[in-house]
């Protein structure tokens, strides 16, 4: 007999499971429930503890309670259900240890108790679960070493133990039936066992974010003809030189779709035999040399250009040099994400990118590239993120970028760009209507601030619908099962940080360290979703417009090192999220507004002005104020932390306690990483 209460509506059942559920034999309307073998109450809102009396339903083969709000411990009495083949308790709030009685369930084929708060170690026995096919314990607080029966379970195909706290070494596997192994985000250490490369049916091997080390003989992957997904990222693995020349020819030539070995010690990549690969991430390794052919020391072969379906390519944070391969442009029909950040590429951007390109993210930040920039190179209608910062591009501002309909992030900072941002076109069509991050800092731009652009920033003015849910910019990870995120480096509250995940509601304008002149336009007050505004180190004069009091989402404002005069508008005290203010080194005078968040700003926010005496400025800044090696930037907190996510409803600078992880592949990318190098400040002649 089967008793199923499916999820027709998300609120079909509330409250706890009654203890009388175990006495269902007394309910005549349900017939002879001694034969009940299938109970499914998944996807409801049931709360409370799992009743012990469920252990009385001795004929149960399926107990499915996943995606509810059940709490407490797993009852020991469930060990009485000796006929049980399916036990699914995932997606609840269960805690404490997994009971030893669960080892009695020798008929179990599917055990799924992930996404809870279970603690302690997994019960161990030399022989356990001889019929187990699928095991999912992901997303708990389990610790200790992996139990011995995991290595010998004869029927086990799916092993999901990710996002726990398991430690110790991975031992040799005796079972050859495994098809999927997910052990990511644990504390496992030591070398990979050689037996893992002899599991012929393995399609997915997912081991990132551990402490695995040692030298991998990658040629052993040749025994895995069905491998589709391989992720060894964020470990301490290295390769020997006598294997790197052949291993890539032997790893899933036809089957492999996803390969991520980033954040290891890979030094050379000479072969790209994967004809069908969609995602390739070799970032943050020690790959060196150039990409051009011919070359005597090729370390990343141009054979990559023979790949037909490549969608995501990340070679960032290596030591690659030379010019960018012309053939990258030939990948334009499929390539959506290209990240060559933090290498040593020089020369110009190949014109081949102009033909039929589908790029949505193009990141060349931190190289030695020169200009000029031409419209034909970046005429990508789907481009969302363009980061050319920290290069040697010498050109005027590329106004034609404003016509790209999907562009949300533009970073041109720290180049040799010059000239005015004034728009001579008489066209009424908007420029940069979807822009959310606009960073032109540390260049040589001059003239007035770009009023035409400010009026066209519809996404920041809140005229362009962005979406109300918490989401991130990124590419669908077609080669795997997750989401590949965009990342950029920005100056936030006087600190250089890298947004390794860009929240879709980030709104930032940084025009600092240029030669802009004239007054701050009143239209700046229209940008009511703006979170960060940096106009420091320019030649701006006039007063601080009172319209800045309309920027109700603003969290940091830096107007330092200009020639601003007048007083600080009192309306700034009404900005509820403002946690960092710097107006130092100007010609401001009068009284400093008091009250609310202004009581937390220290002297370094105001020094170098002509404010009246007796303004009640604190003699010393509060303990949570930092000054970085003489920098004038006011930092409301020491950002010696990893900031994860956004949208907790409080000031971003105080949102550290709201840090939460998303589940899935993208989780490990959800960090804000503080750059440790000194922020470069380029003084411009006034």
From TrEMBL:
Assigned keywords, A-Z: Cell membrane, Glycoprotein, Leucine-rich repeat, Membrane, Receptor, Repeat, Transmembrane, Transmembrane helix
SUPFAM superfamilies from the UniProt entry: L domain-like
Transmembrane segments: 637-661
InterPro entries: Leu-rich_rpt, Leu-rich_rpt_typical-subtyp, LRR_dom_sf
Membrane topology term: Single-pass type I membrane protein
PROSITE patterns assigned to the protein according to its UniProt record, in alphabetical order: LRR
Localisation: Cell membrane
GO CC terms of this entry: plasma membrane
A Pfam family reported for this protein in Swiss-Prot or TrEMBL: LRR_1
SMART domains in the record: LRR_SD22 (SM00365), LRR_TYP (SM00369)
Domain of life per record: Eukaryota
Family membership noted in the UniProt record: Belongs to the RLP family.
PANTHER family: LEUCINE-RICH REPEAT-CONTAINING N-TERMINAL PLANT-TYPE DOMAIN-CONTAINING PROTEIN, RECEPTOR-LIKE PROTEIN 12 ISOFORM X1
Name of this chain's protein: Leucine-rich repeat-containing N-terminal plant-type domain-containing protein
Protein species of origin: Gossypium tomentosum (Hawaiian cotton)
